[in-house]
Amino acid sequence: MEKTVNQKAWFLVLPVFLVVAFSAVLPLMTVVNYSMQDTFGNNQFFWNGVGWFKELLDPSTDLGGRFLTSLWRNLFFSAVILAIEVPLGIVVALSMPRQGWSVAACLVILALPLLIPWNVVGTIWQIFGRPDIGLLGYVLHKIGLHYNYVSNDLDAWATVIVMDVWHWTSLVALLCYAGLKSIPDAYYQAAQIDGASRWAVFTAIQLPKMNRVLLIAVLLRFMDSFMIYTEPFVVTGGGPGNSTTFVSIELVKIALGQFDLGKAAALSLVYNLIIIIVCWVFYTVMTNAGAERQVKKGVA
Amino acid sequence: MARIDLVDLAHSYSGGEAPESFALKPISMTWRQGGAYALLGPSGCGKTTLLNLISGIVTPSRGKILFDGVDITPLSTQKRNIAQVFQFPVIYDTMTVRENLAFPLKNRGVPRPEIDTRVADIADLLDLTPYLWRKATRLTADAKQKISLGRGLVRSDVAAVLFDEPLTVIDPELKWQLRSKLKALHRALDLTMIYVTHDQTEALTFADTVVVMHDGRVGQRGTPAQLFDKPAHTFVGYFIGSPGMNIMSAEVSGREARIDGHIIALNRDYDGFRPGIKIEIGVRPEFVDIAPPAPGLLSANIERIDDLGRIRFARVRVGHAKFAARVPPGFSIPDNVAGLVFDTSHVHVYADSLLVEGSA
Question: Distances from the Cα of B14 to the Cαs of A213, B10, B21, B22, B326, in angstroms?
Fold first, then answer.
């Protein structure tokens, strides 16, 4: 077959090239460029090679220490909220009604926290927890608990975690609910006839049928909590001290607080890399699980 | 193992009291222990409702269900000792075939050694032994349906095993195998089996008693031969048999039926029909032969011939009524007009769709 050669076709692709270049490639390359340099006032730049990266991964330096501490803090935070939100989301989904007007009511109520802008969520909890005018803080003080998220590490952590659970458990619950709704009635009827207990129905039918939506829920919640910035920044500002300073907060402190663009650029590249790797691992696990299912279907 | 009695059982999904809101109109019926029964009827005739009432998935709006004389209507499905096999195979994904089969026993706290022997026995009956240690999700649809079936049979004390169109998703060739397997299992295990289907071949080959249902009612209950020879309702005549029974409106008096001014002799005496009742005669295509047109024979226009291989049926038209008749072997088909020869001993009379016996 003869192909027509028309170089003008490049003009048609050009807009896409330009958009991608300006929106993704150039900014990223700027960051790569910054990460290799040290910056001073008056736009003076000095070549630093991979110096920042070496420092970043060395806990004995200031930069490395701050990065690694916030990284572990952030991973711990993600683990805690996953450990709470996933089981809680499943329980909420299981106890939701299956039919009638109450389904719509439940869905709307569950969706509400998801629709609130993140800094508003932060503000709500910031006020909610204040001992003078906040309902939660005031009540806790009245019963004699010395709750103060501004000065107490544990209280600050508790506030940030409870806030995240309040904000995001709905997402897990809605995903699980969708998974549960897709189970045909015959499974429940067969389980009844087989004399299965409530727990056996859960482990033998509901959990296995939900595993895909759960995987998605875990991925979404992990990524989001690993990148969390707005809510803890509004509530605690990363404090008291550095106790709730997560990676993104640390990054903003370095970039905008100290104006160390080189260090911040190196940190954001590594941060980005971690997220991409985790995403890739999840994606592979998910598609593999899917592929395995396909193979099974092929056999059937 | 039990005799099942249905006493004035009826169900309405809407909870309404009007007769037409009932998916299952009141029926009373006894099923003996060890029988093989089929519930046959078109979609929406109430057969699955009846099955779900027996298994307890649905609670009846009216009436009682007795197992061996004990009223079990208020009992939950778990407590009824019923096994049910559904239209689509239900498999517990995470379990092996062995665990799937053991599940109903494990849930009831049966001791381990007993579970092992029961599972081994049932796997043997169903030819599942080679797959016992495999994950159940990796098997074919018919193997999965066998597992569903096995879970029903594994308990030795079930009152009855219910089948809700269990062969729907199975390939035609395997359908035969599974059906004969079911028949063999019925003989081997002495269980009461109730089989719901809309496929008459399945019903007639599986069951010794077939209950034909129509519009929430029982049209007729009998052996396959009875359903074929003496349909109690025009619906049964039409639904059973392929092609179904010919039903034509006629005037009947004494030993004669009159169609289009033509007289068909009847074997019995029919008299005293109230005026205004719809009178029909019914005769199976197998008992009407096509013949060359002759005076004294009801004449019909041939529309087409269905050659089923072993037997040929002519689709004809008498006046406006459609009719099917047998083409005798070796008979060459006349142009398009033929006479119909009736086997009078198989011509039945129906008043308002119900069989009238007539007097000798």
Answer: 35, 12, 7, 8, 46
